[in-house]
Design a protein that fits this description.
There is one protein chain. The protein has one domain: Up-down Bundle (A middle domain of Talin 1), CATH 1.20.1420.30. The protein contains 14 helices and two strands; from the N terminus they run H-H-H-H-E-H-H-H-H-H-H-H-H-H-E-H. It is globular, with a radius of gyration of 21 Å.
Length: 336
């Protein structure tokens, strides 16, 4: 009976991924054309639409409500590490990813919130204080994006070529007059199905974890984080193959900001405080290294195979730390 149940949840897991895989094409294709029609930056749209990560927030908020701040914060940090390593390292091993320079504004928000998260570990009621600061940072991010959404109208070179093709074939007029509502409808429907697919992945993974008895620490830092990044990895791969890298990159930058502000902010206000733990610090240092590396990458405006190898090595180190570190720390305390 247990074997049948295990196979059932395995089927649900792969079914969820299949839904994401199929609807990601519809979502990116229609969003790309709308960006062409309205002259809106694909990066901004990606950050505002794909950057919203409700399942990630729900996982951390529920953990905080249940008195598990370690899982709540661990999920934020672990999810961000996996999003920036696995989701970009695998595509970079097969493609050279070229993109436009990312505005310093986004890195100012990310680095500020990253240090807010660190300070929340170190002082009493730190989660409450710095969680509130992170929510304020999201408000600034939102205002900035809304303000510039109509100003940043540079179109990716490949997209610009497609626009010319549409105009030559007489299709662009037909799209703008007859199909806008249909495209918006398809974008919303595909986004809903992508979210449903993500929820199926998380729910099935949770059930599989219960059956296998995986530890709470690994569950918080690795399992939830891996599961909630499956859809992001798929969307990044799809955006690269369709020559709309800015949509995938914007979505990932938006997701990191969402993690650091909305998810951490709300979870922190609910949890109020967290007990200091070296495992949090080690993972925070790994995340700082990754974000600093991405800041340097943003200047050269490309992600090469060498970058992909480096990010994948960091991902492996992250896994090793979170599987072996709790044991090593326990041995260290025993020695002293």
């Amino acid at each position: 009976m247990q074997e049948i149940s295990f196979l059932f949840w395995i089927g649900i897991f792969f079914g969820g991924y299949l839904i994401i895989f199929l609807f990601a094409d519809i979502f990116i294709d229609n969003l790309k054309i709308l960006c062409i029609i309205y002259g809106v930056s694909p990066f901004i749209i990606g950050s505002m639409v794909l950057g919203i990560d409700p399942e990630e927030s729900i996982a951390s908020i529920i953990a905080s409500i249940n008195g598990l701040p370690y899982i709540a914060v661990g999920n934020v940090i672990g999810n961000s590490i996996i999003a920036l390593t696995l989701c970009f390292s695998l595509p970079a091993l097969f493609y050279e990813i070229k993109f436009k320079k990312v505005s310093k504004f986004y890195f100012v928000i990310i680095f500020s919130c990253l240090f807010f998260i660190l300070f929340s570990f170190l002082i009493t009621s730190g989660l409450l204080i710095f969680g509130s600061a992170c929510l304020l940072a999201y408000l600034l991010y939102l205002i900035r994006n809304i303000r510039y959404i109509s100003k940043e109208k540079e179109i990716d070179f490949n997209v610009e070529n497609e626009l010319l093709e549409y105009e030559e074939e007489g299709e662009i007029k037909e799209i703008t007059k007859k199909s806008k509502l249909k495209m918006v409808f398809l974008i919303l429907i595909s986004l809903i199905f992508i979210i449903i697919g993500g929820e199926l992945l998380i729910y099935s993974t949770t059930e599989l974890i219960k059956m296998t008895g995986i530890s709470e620490s690994i569950f918080g830092f690795i399992i939830i984080a891996l599961t909630t990044n499956v859809e992001e990895l798929t969307l990044v791969l799809k955006s690269i193959k369709k020559h709309t890298v800015e949509i995938g990159l914007g979505g990932m930058i938006g997701k990191i900001i969402w993690n650091f502000t909305i998810t951490f902010g709300i979870s922190g206000i609910i949890a109020l405080n967290i007990t200091f733990d070296w495992n949090l610090i080690w993972n925070w240092i790994i995340l700082l290294l990754i974000i600093s590396y991405f800041y340097t990458i943003s200047w050269k405006k490309s992600l090469t195979r060498r970058d992909g190898v480096f990010l994948f090595i960091i991902f492996i180190i992250f896994l090793i730390f979170n599987i072996l570190l709790p044991v090593n720390v326990g041995l260290l305390y025993g020695f002293f």
